[in-house]
Amino acid sequence: MAQPIDLADPDRSLIAGNWKMNLLHAEAVALATAVAAWSAPVAAAGVDLLLCPPAPFLASAIGAVAGGAVAVGGQDCHAKASGAHTGDVAAPMLASLGCRAVIVGHSERRRDHRETDPFVRAKVETAIAAGLVAVLCVGETLEERDAGQTAQVVTRQLRAALVEAATDANLVVAYEPVWAIGTGRTPAPGDVVAAHAALRGILAARGPASRARILYGGSVTAQNARSLLALPEVAGALVGGASLKAAEFRAIAETAAALRRQPA
Ligand code: PEP
User: Fold this and answer.
1) Which among 98, 112, 158, 202 is least surrounded, fewest beta carbons within 10 Å?
2) Surface-to-core class of residue 51, CB atoms within 10 Å of its CB (0-12 exposed, 13-18 middle, 19+ buried)
3) What's the CA gap between 96 and 102, in Å, rounded?
4) Which of 176, 185, 223, 234 for mutating ligand 1's site (highest number of atoms within 8 Å of CB)?
5) Which domains does the chain have, with CATH numbers?
6) Rounded to the nearest whole angstrom, what is the distance from the C-alpha of residue 84 to the centroid of ligand 1?
7) What per-residue confidence (pLDDT) applies to 57?
8) pTM for the whole thing?
9) How many whole angstroms from 216 Cα to the centroid of ligand 1?
10) What is the per-residue pLDDT across 114-137, written as a single tens digit (0 to 9) for each?
11) Which of 53-57, 139-143, 203-207, 240-244 has the lowest mean pLDDT?
12) pLDDT value at position 160?
């Protein structure tokens, strides 16, 4: 039986699927079951797999991946650990269910719910305190990119969220250009490298999280996975739309595994 992934080793690659507000219950269970079925050799090659289903399906997804080498995480958590916040999900709730991680600061949350840098920081704090890996999303808008502000924006977002308790084992950063999410557009390789290098510079100055993984996210597909995952400092991918298609997500994960077996 494969070992469940604990996501704590910064030397492993990470391929995460963000299902967003998609799928119905039976479809979510079928997708989680399918991923678990092929997960073992991918994990054995050094690639962590993380699925982030909608909150109502978390318990079923955790059940569906049992026996596979797959972690399950939330798509968001509240900044507080409990309280009068109707409809929200608390990080300790996720941890108590068996989740290993939670996405925080996704651009869709920043946009739809007007989440600010300080609020995202509080989420990172609460997630880590609950024993979860915080997958912190940062990324520039098209206007910011066109104004040459990418490095400035993403390093501001990271600095704002880099809490004292963050370490290589409990923080993952996902560089997700807002204009690349769900659009089929991706940055030029040099732009991904530059953004990741800027983020690494911030992490490197902070001892305990200096080696935290930095993922790329934004229109990753089976077709472009190799070119993106082979870039320096790209430790994996946060995958949205393509993670809803079992075969495509598998192809992305197996590309990551192949790159580890035969480094570019
Ligand atoms: C995302 O939402 O995190 C994402 C990367 O989406 P997509 O892969 O669909 O661009």
Assistant:
1) 112
2) buried
3) 13
4) 176
5) 13-79+86-261 (3.20.20.70)
6) 31
7) 98
8) 0.97
9) 10
10) 999 999 999 999 999 999 999 999
11) 203-207
12) 98
Confidence of residue 33 (pLDDT cuts 50, 70, 90): very high
**What pLDDT score does 264 carry?**
54
Instruction: From the CA of 137, give the closest atom in ligand 1.
Output: 3
Task: Assess contact for 55 and 22: CB atoms under 8 A.
Answer: no
Q: Which residues line ligand 1 (CB under 6 A)?
A: 18, 176, 181-182, 217-220, 238-242
List the structure tokens of 121: 């920081």
* Beta-ladder partners of 172: 135, 213
Tally Cβ neighbours within 10 Å of residue 110.
Answer: 20
Where does residue 98 fall: left (phi above 0), alpha (psi -120 to 50 degrees), or beta otherwise? left
CA angle 184, 189, 193 (to 5 degrees): 120
- Whole-angstrom Cα distance, residue 23 to residue 40? 25
| Whole-number pLDDT of residue 262 | 75
Distance 19 CA to ligand 1 centre (A): 9
Strands (E), the chain: 13-18, 47-52, 71-74, 101-104, 133-138, 171-175, 213-217, 236-239
The two structure tokens encoding residue 12: 């492993």
Phi, psi of 44 (to 5 degrees): -65, -25
Element holding 94 (H helix, E strand): helix 91-97
User: For 148-162, what is each residue's pLDDT tens digit?
Assistant: 999 999 999 999 999
Write down the pLDDT at residue 93.
98
Of the candidates 263, 238, 243, 250, the one whose C-alpha atom is nearest the C-alpha of residue 43 is 250
